[in-house]
Write a structure and sequence with these properties.
About 30% of the residues lie in helices and about 15% in strands. By secondary structure, it is of the alpha/beta class.
Length: about 210
């Protein structure tokens, strides 16, 4: 909570082929419980632009919407979780984000990344240079409240256990379809609990 005892604003980052409409139900759910919810359309959304470039759009949006001293919480779905990780780990987001939740994100790659020979899918393939590099310093996420939510039935993230990482909290929820992870109330309830958790005290890391 900030000085006004109001929860942090929440920023939602969608996945490939999606738009902010993907989060309509989640946004309403969180808004009704008192959160200010924001989201942006990543453009283009069909994979031609690399995840690092999409993350720059997150930087620009954050700088435009939130005051410099405003902490916020970040939720990324599927590809949006990896875009968000790049923002947090590489573009200064670690200094702004207090709670970071990924939902069915391919932290260790997905075989569906071979379906399209475009920049973003290529970066999401297992053992891609992009993911291997990002995972080298994944311990950075220990500085904040990090949670990975996933389902063992995911047919988009292959294998589904690719969403598991050795840091933060790992929460498995039985949801039958990848897309339902952002509309299932079981997931919403977990998200609410994670957003209510007390944030970690930030450590100043010498540069």
């Amino acid at each position: 909570m900030n000085s006004l005892n109001k929860p942090n604003p929440v920023l939602l980052i969608h996945g490939i082929f999606d738009t902010i409409r993907k989060f309509d139900r989640m946004s309403r759910y969180l808004t009704n419980l008192g959160w200010d919810v924001y989201s942006l359309n990543l453009v283009p959304n069909y994979g031609i632009l690399g995840l690092d470039k999409l993350a720059e759009q997150v930087v620009n949006y954050v700088d435009k919407i939130f005051p410099p001293n405003q902490p916020f919480d970040l939720i990324g779905f599927s590809m949006g979780g990896i875009v968000s990780r790049y923002y947090v780990q590489r573009l200064g987001g670690i200094e702004r984000v207090e709670r970071f939740i990924t939902i069915s994100s391919p932290h260790n790659g997905t075989l569906t990344g071979y379906a399209l020979n475009l920049a973003a899918p290529t970066q999401m393939r297992p053992k891609s240079y992009f993911l291997e590099n990002l995972n080298q310093d994944i311990a950075l996420l220990e500085q904040i409240n990090f949670t990975s939510i996933w389902t063992p039935y995911d047919a988009m993230i292959l294998p589904a256990r690719s969403s598991q990482v050795p840091v933060g909290k790992d929460i498995k929820i039985d949801v039958l379809i990848h897309a339902w992870m952002v509309s299932d109330e079981k997931v919403f309830k977990v998200i609410v609990e994670e957003l209510k958790a007390a944030p970690k005290t930030k450590q100043i890391i010498p540069t």
